[in-house]
Amino acid sequence: MNNKKHIPKLFRKPISPKKFTKQIARRIHVQSELDFLNSKLTQDDHGNYLLDTKELTKDDLKRLKCLSKAVKKNRGLLVGWKAAILLVFLIGTLGFNFFLKNRLIKAGVETYLQGVFRAQVELESPTLSLIGGTLSFEHLSIADTDHPMQNLIEIGRSTISIDIGRLLSKKLIINEASSREIQFETPRSTSGALPASELGNAEDGQLDTADGGGPSGTAAGALEQAESLGIEIGRDSAEILIQSYQDSLQSPDLVEGINARYRESRQKWEERVETVQRQVGSVETRTEQVLATDVTSIDSIKKAEEYLSNLRSLKGTAESAGETAETTYSAFQDEARSLKENRSSIEEAIERDIDFLESAVGSFTTDSLQVVADTAKPIIRTRFDTLFEYSERIGRTFSHMKSMSTQKQSKFADRGRRGTIVRFPKRDYPAFLLKNFELSSGTTVSGDVQSLKIRDLTGDQDTWGEPTSVEVSSDTVGGGMNTQLIIDAREQVESLLAADITLNRVPISLSEGLDSLSITSVAADSRNRIELSVQPDLSGRGNAVIELSSLDFNFSEDAHVIGEALRNILSGIETTEFEVEFVFSDGQINSLQVTSELDQILSQRVANYAEEQARVAAAKMEGAMYDYLEEELATNSMLSEEISQEGRRIAEEIKTAENLEQLIEAEQEQMKTRQNKIEQRLRDDVDEQADTLKDEAGEAVKELGEDLNIPSF
Amino acid sequence: MITLVARFIAALNANSRPGEIAAGFACGILLALIPFGNLLWVLLFVVFFLLKLHAGTLLFTTVLFKLFIGIMDPLVDFIGLSILTQPSLTPYFITAINTPLLPLMDFNNSLVIGGLVLGLLLWIPLFYGGRALVKIYRKDIRDKLASSKVVKTFERVPWIRKLTTAIRKSTALYQGWNS
Predict the structure, then answer these.
(1) Beta-carbon separation of A419 and B35 below 8 A
(2) How far apart are CA A154 and CA A147, in angstroms?
(3) φ, ψ for residue B175, nearest 5 deg
(4) For A484-489, which contacts have Cβ atoms below 8 Å and span 24 or more sequence positions?
C-alpha cells in the first residue's frame, strides 16, 4: 500500500540495534513518540529493526516524517548552517590573511607605482595586519624611467603601525612609522624599463585612478591639478590667516585713536589758550593805560576816588582773567593726565600684541588648519560640485545621527538599571601621537648612514606625559654627528629644550670672514659636544666642549697689530680644547664663559664681543618691535610736546595776570598814600586857614573891644 | 511576544532536546542579568546564537526576566562591587580598561560584572534544574495539562486561540502538543 518513497530515509533500511539505540532512540525526547516508533518497528532474525510498511497509515507516515526530522535536528551540539557560516567566515578570513592579502597588496602597490613612475617597481615581502593596523615591507625599489639600469629610489625595511583600537575613539596613535636604508640612484642588475604591454596597462590604470583628473587624464595631470588646487587654497588661506592676525592686534588701532584724540585736544587747547591770552592781553592793555596816568596830576579827592575806582575795577578784571587762566590750566592738567594714561595704555597694548603674536606661533597649526578648511570649502564646492554636495549631505546625516545617538537614550539600554561605576585609572591619549618615527639613508656597508628618529611626537605632551625626543645622526667614513634633542613643553617643567650634540672628526675650514683678525684661513679637525638646556621663557644655559686638532692658521701678509698678536699667539698651537659655558635669554647669549688653554688671552675678547653682539641684537630686536609703530609714536611725542607748550603758554599767561594784579595793587597802595597825603594837606590848609581866621577874628575882636573900651580887652 | 511564548511552549511540548531548552533558559537568565547596551552583552548573544540551544527559549527567558530582574539589582550590585573593589584584581581591571575595545564591555559597571558572575554561577544549577523540569513536565504534566478542562476553556479565549495557532505553526516539524 505504501510506496517506499514516502517513508523517511532513516527508516527505509533495517536499523541495527546499536544504531537504533545511539542514533534514534536517544534523540527522541517525548515518551509517546518513542512508544509510537517502537510500535511500528519489528525485529528480524539478526535483531535489526524494520518498519512494517503494510500497516502504516497516512497519519503514521506524517508522524514518522516529523520524527525523522526531529532525530536529525537533535543531532550534535552545533547547528549545521550556523557552524557553516562560522566555518566559511573563518576559512575566508584565514585564507585571505595567509594567501591573498599580501599578494593583493604587492600587486596593487606595484601596479599603482608603476603607473605613477612608468618604470619597474619591486615590492618584497609586504605584510598587512588589519587587526594590528600594521603595514610593512622588506624592500621597495623603483626604477628610473630615464635610466633603466638604475633605481630612482630604494627603500629598505619599512613599517607603519597604527593603533586601530584608539582610532575607533578618534585618536590617531602611530606606533611606528619607519623607513630604513633609503638610497637614491643605485644600480640595477636588470633593466627597469616596463614592457610595452605593461606600460599600456599602467597608463590605463592611471587613467582610472585619475578619474576626471583634468585634461591630461594622467597621474601627472591629476597631480598638477591637485597641486594647483592646493596652491590656490594655500594662498587664500595664508591671506585670510594673516588678515585675521592683523585684525587681532590692538595697538595699531589704539595708537591711531589716541593720536586722533591728541590732535583734537591740541586744536581745542589752542583755541582756549588764545581766549585766555586775549583776556589777559586786554587786562594788560587797560592796566598799561591806567598806570600811564600821572598820579601827581591828581589834586582832588574826587579825582583820587575816581582813579581808585578804576584801579579796583581793573584789579577785579585781572583777578577774573587769572582765575580763568588757572581753571583752564587745571582742565589742561586733567586732560594731559588722561592723555598720559592713554599713552601708557599704548605700551600695554603693544605688550599684549607681542604676547598674542608669541602665542599665535603656538596655535598657528590649529588656526591655519581651521582657516585652510574654511577657505577650501567654497573652492572645493566649485570644483567638485555634485560630489561635494553628496559628501556634505553624508556628513550632515552622520552628524545628525551622532547627535541623536548622544542625546537620546538608547532603546536597548536597560532603563532604571544603573549600577555603580568604578573608575580605574585610565591612560588618556592625545588626539595625535607619533610614538616612533625613523628615517635612515645609506647602509653600513657603504659607511655613510644618516638617520632621523623622532619619539613621542604630539601636540599634547601633558596628556601623554612624555617629552618629544629627536635624534639626528650621521656617520660617515670621515666623521660623524649625533644630535639628541628633548623638547619638553609640559607644564611645570623647567627645561623646554635639552640638546646634546656631538660632532666627531668634523673638518673645519674657514677661508674667509676672519679678515679683521688678519686670518685668511683656518683649518682643523674638530670633535664637539654641546649640551643645551632651554627654559620655557627661551632662557637657558649650555655647555660646549670643542676639541680642535691639526690646527692650521694662515695670516694675511699685511696683518695689523691684532693680527700680528694673534699670529704670535696662535702659531705653534696644533691642538686645543675649548669649554664654553653660556647663558642666554630671548634667544640671545647674555654671558659666555670660555675656558681653554687660550683663556687668558682670548676669553676677555670673546666675552666682550659676545656681550656687544648680544646688546646689538637686543637693540635690533627692540627696534624691529617698535619699527612699525615708530612713525605713530613720533607723531605722538610731537603732539605731546605741542600740548606741553600750550600748557607752558597758559602758565605764562597766569604769571602775567598775577604780575598785573601785583602792579595794580602797588598802584592802589601808591594811590591810597597819595590820597591820604592830599587829605592831610587839605586838613592842614583848613587848620591853618582856621587858625589864621581865628587869629584875625581875635585881632578884630580885640580891636573892637579896645574901640568899645571894654575893660577886659 | 506571542511568537516567543508560542515557540517556548512548542519547544516544551515538542521533541526538542531538554538540554537545549535548559541551556536556552540558563543563557536567557544570564543575558537578563547583564544590562543591555554593551559589547559584552552583544558578544554573549552572538556566542549563544552560534551554539545549539533553543533560541526561542533564550529570547523568551531574556525578555521575561528583564521585566523583573530589577529586584535582584541590589544583590547583583553587591557582587559586582565586591569584585571590582577587590585589590588583587585591580591590576587586571586597569590593564583591561586601557586595552582597546574592552572598555566597551562596561565591565567597570557593577551590574555588568555582577550580572556576568552571578549568571555564570547560576548557569549550571539552572541548566540541570531546567532540564529536569522539562523532563518532569513532559513525563508527568504535559498530557494531563493538555486534556484538562481548564486548558480547554482557556483555548476558547481569542488571544489564547491565536497563541495555539502560533504553537501549531511552531510545532509543524514535530508531533507534540496535539498528538
Answers:
(1) yes
(2) 14
(3) -120, 90
(4) A488/A461, A489/A461, A489/A536
Q: Name the percent of chain A lying above pLDDT 90.
A: 8
The residue in chain B having the minimum alpha-carbon distance to the alpha carbon of residue A34 is B15
Q: ipTM surpassing 0.90, yes or no?
A: no
The residue-averaged pLDDT of A599-615 equals: 57
Q: Which residue blocks in A74-214 are alpha helix, DSSP H? A: 80-95, 101-117, 164-168, 196-209
DSSP type of residue B126: H
Q: Report the chain B residue with the minimal C-alpha distance to residue A30.
A: B15
The shortest CB-CB distance from B52 to any of A78, A163, A418 is to A78
At residue A33 the predicted structure's pLDDT band, cuts being 50, 70 and 90, is: confident
- All three cell numbers of A386: 555634485
* Cell numbers given for A95: 585564507
**What pLDDT does residue A98 have?**
84
Nearest to A468 by CA among A478, A459, A477: A459
Q: What is the pLDDT of residue B44?
A: 94
Grid cell in block for residue A115: 603607473
Residue partners of B178: CB distance under 8 A and separation at least 6: B168, B171
d(Cα A57, Cα A165) in Å, to the nearest integer?
64
On the question of pLDDT at A611 being above 70, the answer is no
Q: Is the distance from CB of B45 to CB of B98 less than 8 angstroms?
A: no
Q: Give the pLDDT confidence of A51-62 residue by residue, as tens digits.
A: 877 777 888 888
Q: What is the dihedral of CA A357, A363, A367, A368, to 10 degrees?
A: 90
Q: What is the DSSP letter of A20?
A: I
A607: Cβ contacts below 8 Å, ≥ 6 apart = A591, A592, A593, A594
Q: Do B37 and A410 touch (CB under 8 A)?
A: yes
pLDDT in tens, A662-704: 888 888 888 888 888 888 888 888 888 888 888 888 888 788 8
Q: How many other C-beta atoms lie within 10 A of the C-beta of residue A415?
A: 11
Q: Are A61 and A9 in contact (CB under 8 A)?
A: no
For residue B56, give the C-alpha cell: 526561542
Minimal-distance CA residue of chain B relative to A32:
B179
Residues of B with CB under 8 A from a CB of A: 14-18, 35-37, 49-52, 66, 69-70, 73, 76-77, 80-81, 84-85, 90, 93-94, 97-101, 103, 108-112, 114, 138-139, 143, 173-176, 179
pLDDT band at A225 (very low <50, low <70, confident <90, very high): low
**Whether the predicted model's global pTM rises above the 0.80 cut:** no
Query: A623 to each of A276, A424, A630, how far by Cα in Å?
Result: 42, 55, 9
Q: Which residues contact A19 (CB under 8 A, 6 or more apart)?
A: none
Query: What does the alpha-carbon distance between residue B169 and residue A402 come to, in Å, rounded to a whole number?
Result: 42
Nearest Cα neighbor of A550 from A585, A512, A576 is A576
Q: Which residues of B touch A168 (CB under 8 A)?
A: 100-101
Q: Which residues of A have a CB under 8 Å from any CB of B?
A: 27-33, 36, 62-63, 66-67, 69-70, 73-74, 76-79, 82-83, 86, 163-166, 168, 410, 412-414, 416-427
